[in-house]
Amino acid sequence: MNRLSKHKKKVLYALVGSSLVLQTPAVVYADETETAAETVQQSSDSKEIRQKKASENEFSFEGITVFAKREEKKKDAEDTYVGGKLSKKANVGILGSADIFSIPFNITSYTAQEIESKQARTLSDILLDDSSVRFTTSSGHMNENYTIRGFDVTADDLSLNGLYGLAPSGHVPTEFIDRVEVLKGPSALLNGTPPGGSVGGTVNIVTKKAGAESVTRLTTDYASGSQMGLHLDLGRRFGKVKEWGIRLNAATRDGQTGVDGQKKERAFGSVNVDYQGQNWRMYLDAFDNEEKFKNGSSMMVNFKNSVTAIPDAPEGSVNAFKGANASLENKGAMLRGEYDLSKNLTAYAGIGYLKNTYEGFINSTHARSVDSDGNYTGYTTYINGYSNNVSAEAGLRQSFKTGMVNHKMVLSATRLEIESGSAYTESARYASNIYHPVIPLLAAVASNAPKTAESTLNSIAFADTLSFGGDKYNLTLGVRNQMIESKNYNRSTGAMTASYNKNALTPAIAFVFKPWDKPVSFYANYIEGLSKGSTVTDTTAANYGDVFAPFKTKQAEVGVKWENGTFANTLSFFQINKPSLLKDSLSNTYNESGKQQNRGIEWSAFGKLNNEVSILGGITYMRGVQTHTQSGTNDGKTAYGVPAWQANVSFEYAVPHVQGLSFDTRLVYTGSQYTNNNNTAKIPSWMRFDAGMQYKTSLQGNPTTLRFSVENLTNKNYWSGLFREDYLTIGNGRTYKLSMSIDL
Questions:
Q1: CB atoms within 10 A of CB 522
Q2: Each residue of 449-474: pLDDT tens digit?
Q3: Are the CB atoms for 476 and 461 separated by under 8 Å?
Q4: Residue 153 and residue 144: Cα distance in Å, rounded?
Q5: Closest by Cα among 427, 423, 472, 471 to 451
Q6: Is the dihedral of CA 313, 316, 317, 318 positive or negative?
């Protein structure tokens, strides 16, 4: 047997030790008002009897008051759709938390129950029910990237509890996630500018905290090829009125993956401590996540320009980099707090730190200049790098009334500092084939990484939400001033090679109208996204060295949301215009007049159709058009990687005469996509089917859930999308998942 790493030992000790320690008080200690006989009787009672007593009485363990939770359970059920899989509330950046029917944007909030139900190992598994989102990295890779509404959202542009720069890089651990909130479209006013400048949407990770009810849940899981996992989730509240809470999560996973010969290991631990006082609230999060892959990786495929008929996709299990290894570790901490200065005025602040280190064959896992038979000349890249991020936010929220108008006003300031460095080496070239890859030549280990870049993003934002007509009308007005400063350094000498320091204002206006008492709301918004402006690096250009102000991506959207009991819909119409840099051949200068316009219609539906059948998913129709290109060459052509149709629909059927048993199925469809902006090559549409079952039962008095699922049921080989222009991603093959969760 291989020896456990120090990280795995830590996780294993946490799993075993925490479960023993945190279970002990529930058996041994009774309220001090009980008689000795009552104490002995309670200790000897069966677990079922003790649980019944707990639901009927108030009692305490070592001075810790415990109350019945039936009302909390009922309230939780009322605040969610699809049996708890979607939340009816979401965070909207500086606007705070609100009901989705009062939010003038298209937003979906997936819960921890949905994560468990889908046996989600990564963030992409959670987002498989969202028709506006697509995964743009081949399965088995070290990082996950996405598109939302046809525009890129990189792995580094996720937010954690509302702050950019703090979400774990690579794969976000699902074990400590309470909700995943997906806001479609630009959101500079709401969230500020992400470090990578993504404008397609915002994915916010909300971490778990201790709930009203204690949790001790142990989950074991298996996935093909032979991935085994173990996860312990512990939550408790303490104090006279349960003002203190602690939530611990520890997980480990190891074994072969669906990529031929590849092995992955992961060790994760997190803790959340919160305090809910009368006038102030505090939250502390800390986590450590280590990932490794051994013996290879999947690939992205780049075909030669002469290949206009894209050949069939290889199998999802193809390993093009056997022998390659890589590791990545994220260590982070975040402290947030709120203080009620008065009944209507609250101050809030947060600060966090993330250290990300990585080493090995993580990037450049590409097959380049592939011919129509799949042949190419490849090389490997070994990279050693790091990033140190510090992110902070502070603000004031105040509510007041002027005449017949209610105001919710917020003033916010944010700061994100990023220092990063990298070093890399490349191997000699070798001949290979995407269908039958050879053992590659591996690059030498890179030296320690010097600092190569640093950036600072500062912003100040102001917004006011006005409501009138008995909350029938809501108008949000706001503006953010974003400052972006960055510097690049030479790897060898440390000398600064480039600098950037610009700022921009990004206004927004949004409106919600609720015309009837029934839960129907119409909404509209105009909002902008912000990306770092380009620097002209073409030495032959007349304006070589010019630095452009940050690019503004502009969205206009209208939509309607309606609910019918336990079933809800959202219908959105949107238009997004994104600028880019172009060269004017007549003046030999670059300008920012390039433009891509994505227009679309989104319909999402979620909830119960009847007592047995529930639905979750939607359909997106979208047209991505290049409206202004260099010399007009591609004007009117479709932008690469933007399919006209996308659909994700899941159905769940609860067997009426077998309590706890349900079956589910999911369809994922993506239309054909051009692989380049010249529209000379295209990948075909694809459709994938998934199926699964869930059975809730009890083992020795402990609530237990068994889950089994098969993804890509027909084992279809397909090109799933594009990582960037002309770089195709491969869909993963048939994958089996099995898990058992038991509440102790």
A1: 15
A2: 999 999 999 999 999 999 998 889 99
A3: no
A4: 10
A5: 423
A6: positive
